[in-house]
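Many introductory courses stop at the sequence. We go one step further.
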Amino acid sequence: MQIGTELAVLIYFWSDIRSIAVAWARHIARRPHDRQAARMAWLVIFGSVPNVCLGLLAQDMIETGLRNLYITAPMLIGFGLVLGLCDRLGRKTKTERDLTWRDGMLFSLAQAMALIPGVSRSGGTISAGLAMGYTREAAARYSFLLAVPACFW
């Protein structure tokens, strides 16, 4: 199921992913590039680090102790409520251009919470984005771009 979701993300965002990757490669090679796209590449790379580190550190616990309905069910319900609350209360004024390194790290920590069964990866990251004042579109776009390395890792 995860592969199907990720395939859909790749197809939908293919032109964005391609332009971000090209800009990043040109940036590394010190050639003229789209600065905003290269910055987004770095934010995605930077944002992937907590997920990898926490996933490796907590792998045994995630695969054993956290895999039970007494944790999964409340997490599903709780994060549904969090998403609704963040959508209702968030200012929704910031765009992708407003994405800071600090905000990128908060997005990535929200994504890392999805290592807990029942926590939606996209629900957590979009909720974090809305809570930080990002528009739905900006929060969702960065959330799905951040998902690409996480879901294939």
